[in-house]
Structures are given as C-alpha cells and as structure tokens.
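Problem 12. The chain below contains 124 residues. Write out its predicted structure in token notation.
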Amino acid sequence: MNWYLKVLKQFADFNGRARRQEYWMFVLFNILFAIAAGILDRLLGLTDPTTGLGPLYGLYILAMFIPGIAVSIRRLHDIGKSGWMLLLALIPIIGGIWLLVLMVREGDRGENKYGPDPKSITSL
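Solution.
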C-alpha cells in the first residue's frame, strides 16, 4: 500500500525513476480498487445497462489516469528509456507486448541520465 500512496504523492511527477516494485504494486492496487469501484457501482444500482459501467468506476479510472502515466514514464526512465516509449502501447498487440517486456525488465544499476538508482536511495 505504501507504493500506491507514493505514486499518488508523485501524481504528476514525470521526472526521475520508479522501481519495478513501485510500478507493479501500483498496478496491482489500481486493479483491485477499480474492481471494488465496479462492484460498488453494481451494488448501488448505478451501472449503465448497455456498458455495465458506473460513475464510481469511471471517476476512479479518470482520477488514476495521470498518476498511471507518470509512474509508467518513471518506470521507463529506470531502464534508461524515454517516456515517449509509452506510445508503443498504441501499436496493436505487438506494442503492448513490447511495453510489458520493458516494464518487467530490471532497472539500470547506478545513475543513468534520468537520475540516481532508486534502489540505492530508498527502501520502503
């Protein structure tokens, strides 16, 4: 949970680096909270019958859009790649697979052009 809160505190920080653990813990909690929002929408009867989605889910996804992009860019910085590589996701199938490969790669050891190694700075 600390990793999730760390990302929210840096919600619009596109500089620096993010460890694998920070990125994947954010993704995990993001999925869990999105599912919880969807279930809450359904329990409260707020879902749209045509889409099956409700306003709580929509607001949550909208609120996490910028923090998700920011942590993804910082994750790419950790492996020495530009944040513009995130646009690979726009290439059908192959782009998403390649982006997944990049996100699971171990970060550069030591300092790179995007900043110091986050493993040597903090340990939550």
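Discussion. Helices lie at 2-9, 20-43, 55-63, 65-78, 94-104, 118-121. Students who got a different answer should revisit the alignment rule from Section 12.3.
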